[in-house]
Amino acid sequence: MEKIILSEQEVINALCIFHAKFKRVQPQDVQIELMYDDAAGFTAEAYVNGQMDVYNTVNFITAIRLYIDEQLRRDSIAARIVLDLHDEEGIIAKIEW
Predict the structure, then answer these.
(1) Residue 58 is inside which H or E element, if any?
(2) Confidence check: pLDDT of 1 > 90
(3) HSE on the CB side for 44, CA within 13 Å?
(4) CA-CA distance, 86 to 52, in Å (whole number)?
(5) What is the dihedral of CA 3, 41, 63, 12, to 10 degrees?
(6) In the chain, fewer beta carbons within 10 Å around the N or the C end?
(7) What whole-number distance in Å separates Cα of residue 20 and Cα of residue 63?
(8) In angstroms, rounded to a whole number, what is the distance separating the alpha carbons of residues 3 and 5?
């Protein structure tokens, strides 16, 4: 079974690409702030032109699947994706095929 880990920056990039598609802007125009809360789980705030949208864990996984398909050119449907809060590395995504 193959395994890869997406760094926090790669998770942010995935969310930027995902959000940019819906807002019809360039990914570099999107700012992302990642958060973790015991009650809410993984969340992110995405900012474009002063407007904020909130993403939850399901949105994270969807954004990472898009990133896997488009950036890594791999089959995201076959991937098992687990988000993790790492003490030193921040929010990362562990992916297995």
Answers:
(1) helix 57-70
(2) no
(3) 25
(4) 26
(5) -80
(6) N
(7) 11
(8) 7
d(CA 77, CA 49): 32
Q: Name, in order, each residue with C-beta under 8 angstroms of 27's C-beta and a sequence gap of 6 or more.
A: 13, 16, 17, 19, 20
- Write down the pTM of the prediction: 0.94
Tokens linked to 54: 């909130």
53-88 pLDDT, tens digit per residue, is 999 999 999 999 999 999 999 999 999 999 999 999
Round to whole Å and give the CA distance between 7 and 12: 9
Measured CA to CA, the distance from residue 6 to residue 91 in angstroms comes to: 9
Q: What is the C-alpha separation between 75 and 47, in angstroms, rounded? A: 29
The token pair at 78 is: 């076959």
